[in-house]
From TrEMBL:
The keyword Metal-binding does not apply. It catalyses: L-alanine = D-alanine. This is Alanine racemase. The active site is at 31 (proton acceptor), 269 (proton acceptor). One of its GO terms (molecular function) is pyridoxal phosphate binding. Belongs to the alanine racemase family. GO terms for biological process: D-alanine biosynthetic process. The modification N6-(pyridoxal phosphate)lysine is found at residue 31. Catalyzes the interconversion of L-alanine and D-alanine. May also act on other amino acids. The gene is dadX. Pathway: Amino-acid biosynthesis; D-alanine biosynthesis; D-alanine from L-alanine: step 1/1.
Length: 373
């Protein structure tokens, strides 16, 4: 994790001018228990980041308990009045994306001086204020700031398609943001806005040089790439290795049985695999209940004793089957690397399964034995 954070920083440094790079900050995204890697690992792995971003309010308290003293960001903002107390107690920054949250800020005591990230809807249509509403929003924030309920304000947006081959959506969203910054330049200066956060993983790796503005402190929010996966999957020149990203999570399971399957016999539920020749098939103690993608296809790679082979048949709840013909020395008790160090990348596995690396990393079940190294 620490290596990948450095790799992202190096990529950023290559892209942007030295002065703009020095003005940048990195908020490492650790929502969903650090994408399934554990928040404890995130505190260690992202020690060099300027802050950590999460979704869950209780994670703010947990991170302070783990001695994280740098910035904390609540990415979706608060949902309940009680959350405001947690934000104050942990001195965390909160996103603000709707009128209801703005109204709730009035409940803060004078002197709370909460730092906020004001989220704009620039086309994703998920969270954020539409630009047409911004004039009224800024007036409310000026009032809150005069009451010392709000302190620093950061402008924020999120790209819907920064990982797509076509960058038209990125250009449209970025033009919307720049138009807002020009249109409300005077009000933003009066409010003391000096920071801008627009880049997620894909935008950081691909477009940071064009998405950094010289008059702002530019705050990047890398997520998936910090865990060793590229948001562009295995696209040519855009994979994890192309950005010097190393796998963080390695998933292994043991062979618990071996079957000699004759030609024309089938394997697994639905008889999806039919042997064309005698095939040595291993049963591996991992299935979709553990978080492995259920719809992983027959050519999904695994590695046994340093040799690559592939799945056969349908992934079951607690087991999967693999072809041992390429690994004649494999025995019951041998480890099978399903993804990660010494095995296929998470990107290759999820591509074969038709799912995303995000959900697969987050889906590991609690029953899976985890070791943080």
């Amino acid at each position: 994790m620490a290596h990948n954070l450095q790799a992202v920083q190096r990529q950023l440094e290559k892209q942007v001018a030295a002065t703009r790079f020095q003005q940048s900050k990195t908020i490492a995204i650790a929502k969903a228990n650090a994408y399934g890697h554990s928040i404890e690992a995130a505190v260690r792995g992202f020690a060099a980041a300027d802050g950590i971003g999460v979704i869950e309010t209780e994670m703010l308290t947990r991170l302070r308990e783990l001695d994280w003293h740098k910035e904390l960001v609540l990415l979706e903002g608060f949902f309940e009045e009680a959350d405001l107390e947690v934000l104050q107690a942990t001195t965390a920054t909160t996103a603000i994306h709707c009128q209801e949250q703005l109204d709730a800020l009035q409940l803060l005591p004078e002197g709370a001086n909460l730092k906020i990230m004001l989220k704009l809807n620039t086309g994703m249509n998920r969270l954020g204020f539409r630009p047409a509403l911004l004039a009224q929003v800024l007036l409310q924030l000026e009032r809150l700031k005069s009451q010392h309920k709000v302190a620093e304000v950061v402008m924020m947006m999120h790209f819907a398609d920064a990982d797509a081959p076509d960058r038209a959506s990125v250009d449209h969203a970025w033009n919307e943001m720049r138009l807002v910054l020009r249109q409300f330049e005077v009000q933003l200066k009066q409010l003391g806005v000096v920071s801008l956060s627009v880049c997620n993983s894909a935008a950081t790796l691909r477009y940071a040089d064009e998405l950094f503005l010289p008059n702002y402190q530019n705050i990047i929010r890398p997520g998936l790439c910090l865990y060793g996966a590229s948001p562009m999957g295995n696209a040519e020149g855009q994979g994890a290795l192309d950005f010097d990203l190393q796998p963080v999570m390695t998933l292994k399971a043991k062979i618990i049985a071996i079957q000699d399957v004759m030609a024309n016999e089938t394997v697994g539920y639905g008889s999806r695999f039919k042997a064309t020749q005698k095939t040595r098939v291993a049963v591996v103690a991992c299935g979709y209940a553990d978080g492995y993608p259920r719809w992983a296809g027959a050519l999904t790679p695994v590695v046994v004793n340093g040799k690559e082979t592939h799945l056969v048949g349908r992934v079951s709840m607690d087991m999967m089957m693999i072809n041992l013909n390429p690994v004649p020395d494999a025995r019951v008790g041998d480890w099978v690397t399903l993804w990660g160090e010494g095995g296929p990348s998470i990107g290759r596995v999820t591509e074969c399964a038709g799912v995303g690396s995000y959900e697969t990393l987050c889906n590991l079940n609690q029953r899976v034995n985890k070791q943080i190294i």
